[in-house]
Write a structure and sequence with these properties.
This protein has 260 residues and is of the alpha+beta class. It has eight helices and nine strands. The strands form two sheets. Strands 1-2-3-5-4 form a five-stranded mixed β-sheet.
Length: 260
């Protein structure tokens, strides 16, 4: 079996993080999984939702929004606002992002604040939800570090990092980090969210008009665990890099996409 991009079965696509790409956000990063690119930004609002006030719930809140920009796919994707409602896929993904990040953020320690996580897909080539969770965790960590630096909190409410990666059965073989052709043709598709110490946060998996065995499921989870180990190392470096003044202008963005 040869993968479309000739990677090994256990090989991630090239992954990169460029922090501080959105200067008005509290924390931001451009995350790339191969040709999938997502801008993840965290904005801190010194307020909480009305339902928390009404129910007198202590602490803060974290919520996410996800959007694929019209030019992120080969055929232009209509904006949700032009259809008058959020499509079902986007709604499901942003709930997944929010759930995943809330699993590792102590909302009581956050205080009377809301963390807004915005994930905007610039280019889609498979794995946009896993890239969004992975980049969202970096954006949250950067934002909370700034909150500590400003003296508003003493320690980070983020208990640990999380990351996500896909795995699947492609041409009868378990593989890691599916790109679009693999995702389209896979017999089985898994999305795995784990903490940096390799505890599971969520697993989404289904056969695409196919079934899978326990051995295949175990193989996909083993591939995912090894991938998460690699990804969290890169996340930590990105968070450290964000503490160094970093300016990204239009020229820098052009260079990211192969311009001069």
């Amino acid at each position: 079996m040869t993968r479309p991009d000739e990677r090994e079965t256990n090989q991630l696509r090239p992954i990169s993080f460029t922090p501080n790409v959105a200067p008005h956000a509290s924390g931001s990063v451009l995350v790339s999984f191969g040709n999938t690119r997502v801008i993840c930004a965290c904005t801190i609002e010194e307020n909480i939702p009305g339902w928390m006030k009404y129910q007198k719930i202590k602490g803060g809140w974290l919520t996410a929004e996800y959007s694929m920009l019209p030019y992120s796919t080969l055929d232009r994707k209509r904006r949700d606002i032009s259809q008058g409602k959020l499509d079902g896929r986007s709604s499901e993904i942003q709930r997944l992002i929010g759930r995943s990040l809330r699993a590792v953020v102590d909302l009581k320690m956050l205080g009377h604040r809301t963390l807004w996580i915005d994930c905007d897909v610039l280019q889609a080539d498979g794995g946009t939800r896993t890239a969004s969770i992975t980049g969202g965790a970096v954006a949250v960590a950067i934002a909370l570090n700034k909150l500590i630096a400003s003296g508003k909190i003493k320690q980070s409410p983020m208990k640990k990092l999380i990351a996500a990666v896909s795995a699947g059965v492609y041409e009868k073989t378990p593989v890691l980090d599916l790109n679009y052709p693999e995702d389209r043709d896979a017999d089985v598709d898994f999305n795995v969210v784990m903490t940096e110490d390799l505890e599971f946060v969520e697993i989404q998996g289904a056969g695409e008009e196919a079934t899978f065995s326990r051995d295949e499921m175990n193989a996909m989870l083993d591939l995912s665990e090894a991938g998460i180990k690699e990804i969290t190392t890169l996340q930590k470096q990105a968070i450290a890099d964000a503490e160094v003044p970093h300016k990204t202008d239009l020229l820098d963005l052009a260079k990211m996409y192969g311009g001069k």
